[in-house]
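Please annotate the following for my students:
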Amino acid sequence: MKKVKITVLKQTEYSDLIKEYENPIKHTCDLKIGDVFISYNAQKPKNLCNSAWESMEKFVKTLADGGGNFFDGWMKNKYSAMISCNDGFRPVSFYLETIQL
Protein backbone atom coordinates (compact mmCIF):
# COMPACT_ATOMS: atom_id res chain seq x y z
CA MET A 1 0.00 0.00 0.00
CA LYS A 2 1.06 3.55 -0.69
CA LYS A 3 1.39 6.16 2.03
CA VAL A 4 -0.99 9.11 1.83
CA LYS A 5 0.06 12.57 2.93
CA ILE A 6 -2.78 14.71 4.34
CA THR A 7 -2.10 18.46 4.50
CA VAL A 8 -4.35 21.11 6.06
CA LEU A 9 -4.56 23.86 3.42
CA LYS A 10 -7.42 26.09 4.48
CA GLN A 11 -9.82 26.73 7.34
CA THR A 12 -12.81 28.97 7.53
CA GLU A 13 -15.51 29.82 10.04
CA TYR A 14 -19.06 30.88 9.33
CA SER A 15 -19.80 33.04 12.38
CA ASP A 16 -23.25 33.97 11.05
CA LEU A 17 -24.27 30.30 10.90
CA ILE A 18 -22.70 29.60 14.29
CA LYS A 19 -24.62 32.47 15.87
CA GLU A 20 -27.92 31.38 14.35
CA TYR A 21 -27.77 27.60 14.59
CA GLU A 22 -25.03 26.22 16.85
CA ASN A 23 -25.30 25.61 20.57
CA PRO A 24 -22.25 27.07 22.35
CA ILE A 25 -19.36 24.61 22.57
CA LYS A 26 -16.11 24.90 24.51
CA HIS A 27 -13.76 23.00 22.21
CA THR A 28 -13.53 23.20 18.46
CA CYS A 29 -10.97 22.03 15.90
CA ASP A 30 -7.29 21.92 16.92
CA LEU A 31 -5.98 21.69 13.34
CA LYS A 32 -3.80 24.45 11.92
CA ILE A 33 -3.01 25.42 8.33
CA GLY A 34 0.13 23.54 7.35
CA ASP A 35 -0.45 20.55 9.64
CA VAL A 36 0.62 17.33 7.94
CA PHE A 37 -0.46 13.78 8.70
CA ILE A 38 0.67 10.53 7.08
CA SER A 39 -1.71 7.63 6.65
CA TYR A 40 0.04 4.26 6.71
CA ASN A 41 -1.87 1.23 5.43
CA ALA A 42 -4.93 3.43 4.84
CA GLN A 43 -5.36 3.94 8.59
CA LYS A 44 -6.43 7.14 10.36
CA PRO A 45 -3.36 9.08 11.47
CA LYS A 46 -2.99 9.80 15.17
CA ASN A 47 -4.35 13.24 16.17
CA LEU A 48 -6.54 13.60 13.08
CA CYS A 49 -10.11 14.20 14.23
CA ASN A 50 -12.69 11.51 13.57
CA SER A 51 -15.02 13.86 11.71
CA ALA A 52 -12.31 14.81 9.21
CA TRP A 53 -11.34 11.16 8.79
CA GLU A 54 -14.92 10.16 8.03
CA SER A 55 -14.96 12.72 5.22
CA MET A 56 -11.74 11.51 3.61
CA GLU A 57 -11.42 7.83 4.49
CA LYS A 58 -12.67 6.39 1.19
CA PHE A 59 -10.37 8.70 -0.78
CA VAL A 60 -7.35 7.80 1.37
CA LYS A 61 -8.09 4.08 0.96
CA THR A 62 -8.39 4.44 -2.81
CA LEU A 63 -5.12 6.39 -3.03
CA ALA A 64 -3.34 3.93 -0.73
CA ASP A 65 -4.43 1.10 -3.02
CA GLY A 66 -2.87 2.90 -6.00
CA GLY A 67 -6.10 4.31 -7.37
CA GLY A 68 -6.98 7.88 -8.18
CA ASN A 69 -8.33 9.93 -11.05
CA PHE A 70 -11.45 10.74 -9.05
CA PHE A 71 -14.38 12.06 -11.06
CA ASP A 72 -12.57 11.63 -14.40
CA GLY A 73 -9.84 14.20 -14.17
CA TRP A 74 -10.99 16.41 -11.30
CA MET A 75 -7.45 16.93 -9.95
CA LYS A 76 -4.32 17.99 -11.86
CA ASN A 77 -2.44 15.24 -10.00
CA LYS A 78 -4.62 12.18 -10.55
CA TYR A 79 -3.17 10.61 -7.39
CA SER A 80 -4.57 13.33 -5.14
CA ALA A 81 -7.84 14.75 -3.83
CA MET A 82 -9.08 17.93 -2.15
CA ILE A 83 -11.45 17.06 0.68
CA SER A 84 -13.19 19.12 3.34
CA CYS A 85 -14.36 17.91 6.72
CA ASN A 86 -18.07 17.77 7.30
CA ASP A 87 -18.25 20.58 9.90
CA GLY A 88 -20.63 23.03 8.26
CA PHE A 89 -19.66 25.76 10.73
CA ARG A 90 -15.84 25.46 10.57
CA PRO A 91 -14.85 23.50 7.44
CA VAL A 92 -11.21 22.52 6.96
CA SER A 93 -9.82 21.72 3.50
CA PHE A 94 -7.30 18.90 3.17
CA TYR A 95 -5.04 18.02 0.25
CA LEU A 96 -4.51 14.25 0.00
CA GLU A 97 -1.66 12.83 -2.09
CA THR A 98 0.17 9.55 -2.40
CA ILE A 99 3.83 9.68 -1.42
CA GLN A 100 6.83 7.44 -1.03
CA LEU A 101 8.64 7.66 2.32
Observations:
- Residues 3-99 form one domain.
